[in-house]
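Hi team, as promised in this morning's meeting, here are the two structures we talked about. I've kept the exact order from the run log so nobody has to guess. The first one is mostly here for context; it's the second one we should focus on when we meet again. Sequence first, then the predicted structure tokens.
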Amino acid sequence: MTVKKKIVVLLKGYPRLSETFIAQELLGLERAGLELELVSMRRPTDKKRHPVHDEIRAKVFYLPEYLHEEPVRVLKALWACRKRPGFGRALRQFFNDLRHDMSRNRFRRFGQAAVLAHEWPADAGWLHVHFIHTPASVGAYMHLITDIPWTISAHAKDIWTSGDLDLSRKLDSARWAVTCTAGGFRHLQNLASDKARVHLSYHGLDLTRFPHFEGPRSSRNGSDPNDPVRILSVGRAVRKKGIDILLRALAALPSSLHWHFTHIGGGDELARLKPLAEELGISERIVWTGAMDQTQVLEHYRQADLFALACRITSDGDRDGLPNVLVEAASQRLTCISTNISGIPEFFVDGENGLLTAPDDPVAFSKALEQAATDPALRTRLGDAAEHRVRTSFDHRNSITELKTLFEQEWDKSV
């Protein structure tokens, strides 16, 4: 029996500047010998690309982002899929889901699944889905229609903003799921009927893109108004990043401490954050650069004295897992200050290789900023320890090997 080993990877959007961990994984799997084809539910909106996106060889195809924009394509797919043995099962599941989620989004996912099933490449035998919320809904319907095996990579927001019943159904439908933090791993294991189907694998970094920084770290301590401490944050301006908390923490620093803050990233919250900085009287010390590619961000890591990310859990459960930017910054011996939520304490130990505070606490975050800003020796100790943690435990080749093994084990069962 010949097993078709080409993997179709379903993504919510591609390429995306904020999802370098996915692009890094795709390239790693290609270099490990796996053949991929990419399917995206949304077209790109970012104006820039990371270099890694240009190195990925896999073709990219786009599903109809909105069904009404390509009605002929959607209707043609639904008409063809009606003859599939699994179409009735998929339709019954769709109507069952509608009872819990009567939305246009639900109709969109079913239509996208039909298009994916109808246009499925003849030489592919596997579907792997990134994110267990809406992309996995498309994947689950597609699997019911075609009976093509599928697997899931779950991350953070997609886990914590989904209902338990929805997660359980998808975990029981997929051959296996992998996730990138211990907290997410435990949560998914508790919801899966077969706990062995859930695996933990940290993303890690491609350390060839983040080589050891040979340059000296500065001895700035905030006492010189002409040479202020340089504080950096990288990430989309969204609620879970806690940028408003960081701004309030900066405003609470002693007037005698001289600092400059740079934020890299786009995001809708910028429209609210910039006026907040004005209101707090700190806007003249801040530069908002907008989005940058990975090589530009690397240079900022090397020029900064501190990296700050005040992550929080929002009211709808949204949160980061272990933000890649923290691991990237740590790889450059840059002292990191963050919060003790999600997967962040799985990498950082407060006082050993970084400084962590409770979330939504600008006073505590300000004290941590002041402590690191005024103590260059502390920054050196924390930064060196953080880099050691990256280079000994967070090499992305480990996660690529783990994923490749999982795929190969499934193919071996099919022979």
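And here is the second protein, the one for discussion:
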Amino acid sequence: MPPPSPPTRTPGTWDVIVVGAGPAGATAARVAAENGCETLLLERAAIPRYKTCGGGLIGASLAALPPGLPLNIYDTARQFTFSLNGRRQRTLTSSSPTISMVYRSEFDAALTEAAAAAGAEVRDSTALTALEQQGGTVTVKTNRGDALRARAVIGADGSASRVARYVGVQCAQVDLALEAEVPVDERTADRWRGRLLMEWGPLPGSFGWVFPKGDVCTAGVVAARGNPAALRAYKDDFLRRHGLLGPRPFHDTGHLTRCRRPGSPLARGRVLVAGDAAALVDHWSREGISYALCSGSLAGHAAVRLVTAADEAEADSTADDYGRQVDDVLGVEMRASGTLMDLFARNPGLVHTALTRLPPAWHRLDAYVSGRTSVAGIMTTPLARTAAALATRLPLGPARTPSDSPPGS
């Protein structure tokens, strides 16, 4: 006797709709599909699409990837050069191969393909235009004129997220990053191969970076939003000093990075947010890929439970549980990175000296980058506690720019 046919799904209805096919959204869609949910993944751009990002995968990111994910790695950083606005430069060697360099267009496409292989339907060039929920159903309207319905929706549509505005995400820190992908000649490529640069910049909380990717270097600067002219001047000076200003870049872009305010909502009814849409980003390094992969997985599992929730009281409880899980894992990290950011903004020279002259400080950072410890683990060490206590007695530089507004406002 043949097995019974699966029930026919009503056109336009899904168990789970995920908005945004970055690391958080693609991961959430894959997890939901793997757990038997009829899942739709929407992406406003055509895949593959360019994404402003350094493209460095730390150990926590690599550990969170699905097994066997095909990934083009263009370099692996074994050496870290640190400098203080171009001075006091020192290069340290990692105890193990550390940061894997990728292009986000390829990385996100691979994660999206993994979601499709798990059974999710992918629709690119499809943007969300409106969102509403009623009676246990969420309706997603798109630029194609569709009105799609689901039992759960996950917003993973980046730092300018429409879903985040709907949920009411609030930010404690908003930064502007300017980045260029610069073609380099063979001699320059050899000089950077296996080595990345982190330079603590002249603006409060700022730094510049160079990530090598063979015949291309991804380079940029980041600082608090509010003084774009000064940041552009720093970027030009930074690229010039490192021989990256002359070649015409393949991409020359900017974007905002946002860090969540503690207690900011992560759900509204059956609508969850993850990754950049939830403003889950490290305060100090502005690293967000590992946060996106982790929160995307948590959101995918939460969506599965929302689909099977018996009533709205159970759905609300599931959404609350998701918020607690994110806070238990990533909120702890963000609070620790916020403390580190405060120390760094008050005295970047102190941080630079600790990293380059005190081996325990470098070993801890190396362990974090390679995935052997966390930022919270770093900040509980006696050295970090002493430095943080000292920082509270130091004068604070020009004010950073917090924001109570949702991402994208």
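Starting points for discussion:
The longest strand covers residues 171-183.
Residues 1-8, 396-406 have pLDDT under 50 and may be disordered.
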